[in-house]
Amino acid sequence: MNSAIRNYAFVTAAYWGQTLSDGALRMLVLLHFHRIGYSPLQIAFLFLFYEFFGIVTNLVGGWIGARLGLKVTLFSGLAIQIIALGTLALLNPAWSVALSVVYVMASQALSGIAKDLTKMSSKSAVKALVPADATEGSLYKWVAILTGSKNALKGVGFFLGGAMLGWLGFAPSLWTMAGVLLATLLICAFALPHHIGQAKEKVGFGGVFSMTPAINVLSAARFFLFGSRDVWFVVGLPVFLYDRLGWNFAQVGGFLALWVIGYGIVQASAPALTRGRGKKHSPAGSSAVLWTLLLAIIPALMALGFWRGLDASIVIIGGLAVFGFVFAINSAVHSFLILSYSDGDKVALNVGFYYMANAGGRLTGTVLSGWLFQVAGLPGCLWVSAGMALAAGLLSLRLPRRSGVSLQPQHA
């Protein structure tokens, strides 16, 4: 058990390092390019390859992790992120807009590959590291702590990105983050065993596509769940805060940072918030239905608030607080269910497939966020968010209704 906790700590530390740089990089790119005159739709396109290559990475990365071990994919993700930061720091301000957009999209593609390799590896490793005789509740607790702490640090990354842009400038901030991430990689690389998550039998590439109905349904629901967040959170919200409410870079970055930190804290606390009486039960499909349908109500109420002419600051701050709480529970429940539904020996494949759907939802939400904000404003983004959350809830009706999936590896 002590060895498992030690390895879990190193996996978490590696994930934390990548998460800090990823959150800071997103805020740096968004605010920097908005400041120099890019439209919301152009900014959305800067993240297009980031999300698209996340789809490809999760599909292929799960297969590579199952064949070679999760340590390979985990530290490959960190190394690629360092390359992405250095590449972006070399952006020449004298280049044309078209060339700059293509160049940034390419560097963001590397960052998307890095983020999803690291995320898939870290979350899959939790299943592999939990002792075989552990209870289902232990798995829920371990994955909630990893995911919640990661999102809290992503919030810190948002703040760092906004603050560093003001203090250091664009390129020096990127070089600083690359150096810190390199140190993280070197510290953690020698500490983990080589074969975490490696399948006992060689897996053909066709194995990346899940044949389990519950995993397919959960993946489809995940697509719409994360689309419902990013359709207003990625581009529409930061630009609204900066343009319409007159906030400066540090205020925008700090506010979004506090939101994501709070979101992470709730996510890490989800096991205590979602278990049944006596805390004996872990989430099941019914939990996903309840929390996702509840989520759909919140952006709809926010959009109605704008329509009724309520104070925009109150609608945004109050709505985001409630949305963040409910979304955090949703994300924690989903993160538990994908591991609970997965065989221990094939967890990397299933998690890779699942996060491929997650990346697809983020890609769709990101593109829609820029376009909808231009044509319909933030209320338009919010209405689409409500619709996507509703779709996730309706899909979740097809999930197994009861918890109690064994942690023991199951072999077909």
Distance, first to last CA: 28 Å
Assigned CATH class:
Mainly Alpha
Main β-sheet description: none
Low-confidence stretches: 204-208, 404-412
Shape-level CATH architecture: Up-down Bundle
Number of E-type strands: 0
Describe what this molecule looks like in 3D:
- The structure is a single chain.
- The chain is 79% helix and 0% strand.
- The protein has one domain: MFS general substrate transporter like domains (Growth Hormone, Chain: A, Up-down Bundle).
- The longest helix is centred in the C-terminal third of the chain and has 50 residues, at 347-396.
- It is globular and about 50 Å long.
- It is mainly α.
- The two termini are 28 Å apart.
- Helix 1 runs antiparallel to helix 7.
- Residues 204-208 and 404-412 have low confidence and may be disordered.
Topology (SSEs and partners):
Elements: H1 2-35, H2 40-46, H3 48-68, H4 70-89, H5 97-129, H6 136-167, H7 170-189, H8 213-233, H9 236-243, H10 249-268, H11 270-274, H12 285-307, H13 312-341, H14 347-396
Summarize the structure.
The protein has 412 residues and is mainly α. Helices cover 79% and strands 0% of the residues.
Features:
single chain; 412 residues; mainly alpha; Growth Hormone, Chain: A; 14 helices; 79% helix
